[in-house]
Amino acid sequence: MKFEEITLSPNIMSGLQDINYTELTELQEKVIPAVLEGNDALIKAEPGSSKIGSFVIPALEQIDKREDKDGTSLLVLTPNPEESQEIDELVWAMGYHAQIECASIDMDTDLEEQKEAIQSEVEVIVGNPGPLLDVCQDLKFIFRHVEMVVIDAADEMVALNLQDKIQNILKRVLSDHQTLIYSKEVNDDVKELTKKYTKDPIAIGFEDKPGMLTEPPKVDQNLTQGYIYVPNRMKITTLMAHLENTPQDNCIIFTASKRGTDRLYRTLRKNDMKATSLHGKLSDEKRSQRFANFTNGDVQYLLVADTPAAELDLDRVTQVINYDVPNDPDEYRYRANLVGSGTASRIVSLVSKQDRSDINELENSLGQAPKELPLPDKVKQKLEERKKQKKKKSRGGKRDNRSKRGSNNGRGKKKNDDLQLPRPSYDKLSGGKKGDAPKDQKSGVIGLIKKLFS
């Protein structure tokens, strides 16, 4: 796409021509239209002029259209001086014909120049959080006309523990404004930063993570939530017994790994149950086909691994089973949201010994704790059979031990007696139990030498 294809003012177009900007990059094609529409956004981007242009171009366009250019309109926060100065230079070049002024407030710039730029309220301020906050606090300065805030390299900001400085700077921005956050990657701290400073943001470049910026849905109060404590080494047995008790359900079963889905798939097929599986290693074509088989009703059970529930576009499921309990309460909420509302619908978790801490965390987080469900009768019967077998084995073992003891009391004892060696006489040992050697006889090595030579 060429810049002529998007609506930009003649002044900004002239600035782009001066620096040989003719075509939008892939990132700019995604970002600039969204920014011009006024969206807050979290944007995935690597450092470089393409990223800088994606927010500078629409911001300068907004500034050039303003009738009153008094006051700072664009505030950019970036973690290092080099990036701040690069943004400053690009703003100056692109905004030259629009007479847009910019200043960089960073660790390498003269302090008096920084104060003068802040007080004169140039249209664009770019700064490192530490120096910018120091200058603003020293001048007791407030931003009253900002229309756009850009938090650049949010992941680096978080790594440098700059969240408090960012917060204190943004407290000084009193005007309503659009917020753009750029990051190479997203972690919990970046998500928190985005939720705190944006309104209904869109994600650009992170589309592979559905639900990343939205609050997880609340669990329906009418939904039946339960869990079954699974006896040791009886998880598949418990699952199959539970499925037999709920034969009509259209069911999704979540496991922790592809290996788990493969194992369950073989078990279900062996019992003539129609099932299919989704996991991270499937091609898009196979994934779509298997998903369609489930949504069309061709199969009754969908086994899922390595796929967040937020990615599953379903609304006709009567039961969700956590074969492995999720350790993230939000993931549990998204799974519960797949189930149709009503008391006939349910989400059930199979809780083994190692899952108990996870189910306890869920209970604390959800507010509405799942209820413990009774163990299926079939599992109880197998447990009883297992106990009986153990008792038989233990009795058989005792008899074997008794017979072994009896054999030791008979012939075995004679043989041992016959094989016993004669005990040595202490009389012949120097310094033995029956007294010392005669006085004229030396003991030890010296006595032995004398005997040899006598």
The total count of helices amounts to 17
N- and C-termini, Cα separation: 117 Å
Overall pLDDT: 85
Using the coordinates shown, work out and report the CATH topology of the largest domain: Rossmann fold
Secondary structural class: alpha/beta
Which CATH architecture of the largest domain?
3-Layer(aba) Sandwich
Contiguous uncertain segments of 5+ residues: 410-419, 425-440
Biggest sheet, strands in spatial order?
3-4-2-5-6-1-7
Percent of residues in helices? 40-55%
Question: What's the number of extended β-strand segments?
Answer: 14
Q: What radius of gyration results from the CA coordinates?
A: 39 Å
Count of individual domains: 2
CATH level-4 homologous superfamily of the largest domain: P-loop containing nucleotide triphosphate hydrolases
Beta percentage is 5-15%
CATH hierarchy, class of the largest domain: Alpha Beta
Largest sheet: 7 strands, parallel
- What sort of overall outline do the alpha carbons produce when their principal axes are compared? elongated
Biased composition (Basic residues): 388-405
Keywords: ATP-binding, Helicase, Hydrolase, Nucleotide-binding
InterPro entries: DEAD/DEAH_box_helicase_dom, DEAD/DEAH_RhlB, DEAD_box_RNA_helicase, Helicase_ATP-bd, Helicase_C-like, P-loop_NTPase, RNA_helicase_DEAD_Q_motif
GO cellular component, one term: cytosol
